[in-house]
Sequence to fold (528 residues):
Amino acid sequence: MTEPGTPVRVDIGPDQMLTTTVDDPEQGWRRLSIRMLLVHPVMELMRFIPVLVLLVFFNRRDQNGFWPLLAVGAFVALGVARWFTTRYRVTPTQVQVRRGLLSKSTLSVPRDRVRSVDMTRHFMHRLLGLTRLTIGTGQSDRQKQDGLQLDALTSGAAEQLRRELLHERPGIDVPRAASGGATSAPVAAVPRETVIARFQTSWVRYAPFTLSGLTIAGAAIGLVANAARQAQVDILNAGPVTEVRHDLNRLPVVWAAIAIAILLLAIIAILSVVAYVLAAWNFALTRVGGTLHVSRGLVTTRSTTIEERRLRGVEFSEPLLLRAVHGARAVAITTGLRVGRGAERGGSMLMPASPAGEVRAAADAVLRTPEPNSVPLVPHGASARRRRFTRALGVAAVLCAALVALWFWASWPVWVAWLGVAMLPVGALLAADRYRSLGHAYVDGFLVTRQGSVVRRRYMVHSDGIIGWNEHQSFFQRRSGVVTLHATTAAGSQSYEILDVTPQVGLAVADRATPGLLNQFFVTGDRA
Fold:
């Protein structure tokens, strides 16, 4: 037993230790809501619904039905054990979570390392008035961590904890006097909420151009295949599937391919709309004091709170199809939030697919300046243009030669050869667009860099968040006299590139963003 006032060493990571003083080691521990016992078993039961549906639909009996029931019982027992063995507490300096039945562990996070708070409620949570709260502590996508997670708290307790961790107070902060019992005068009031952007039903028209339906289709195919395997059902030879295949075999190959393509596009468009509505409905981006709040969701609601002092910039993203209909997205470049999770980019999404003008206005409001979004970018010169065309046309020429050879020697249809020839102008158009997208600038304390064609991204990173620079030069870049400069930061993707610039231009930009950091690499005449 630890005595009061004894320094305690707590492991908070592979290479980090925290020494603190505990006044009472057993004081202040709280349990999760007992209603969580209704959440986890029901969610586990839902995993077996596809198997039951296939069994009923195809009139099959599962000869091993005992094992799924046994697995469900095991998950129910684990859910009960999780409630009994999980406790948490918030001290003036730490957030602590204790877990484990046979092997106990205590995770402690210093409160000054809390970067964000993510509150998620799926339909079972909402039905029972619960919330899953995830505390972001600066993890990245390269670290397989989900932060410190409490599943599930009552909605009121989760909101109170969110405000407490991010230095907000619900109402008036009235600290207790030293004499005990008396209170001081009010010292702080609730900050006023400013709405930056709010969901509009007209945004749904951009959903088919996000192609998020591809992700749902892939997940659905995997789910059905797994359920069919458990139910011992051969879907490919089932009655409905066999009839469709028979009808397609009656059509010429070209018309069958067109029919399949139209059907797939229609399914993907419908699924994209469904995914967009589920994810972005009731979206709101607001500012309260020094924090940004992003809330969204129809069935599963999600509320993410980002401290602005942790915000390092904004990514303005324009995928090719969205760009064609003048749409865009915005993503926060901040510490403590994961990125790169599909279209919604996890908790870092600031604006879903919506009109580019509204996304740009929201990004300006978040950055508190319009300059990074409006500044003209410096082009990267003839060498960068030549590299774009060389690579695009080189790949297109190889594919064209392969397809023409298959037509000539393997007697493939002639349209295959024409497809190969068509790749040459497509490659040229792609190269031209990639070069037009290339550029950089430094304005109002922000490094701005843009690249990409299929997905064009404009990164606007505040210079205060840049902690270093990496210069990369491949063999072919050395031949062209250009380099790729990487601005290193602890936020977002952790590295943002300025592609194919001359070494002098790259060093000049780096010196403007971080004055004096690269002095040793300059020679007389290098500074711009």
Observations:
- The CA atoms of residues 510 and 516 lie 9 Å apart.
- Residues 381-436 form one domain.
- The chain has a mean pLDDT of 79.
- DSSP finds 15 helices and 22 strands in the chain.
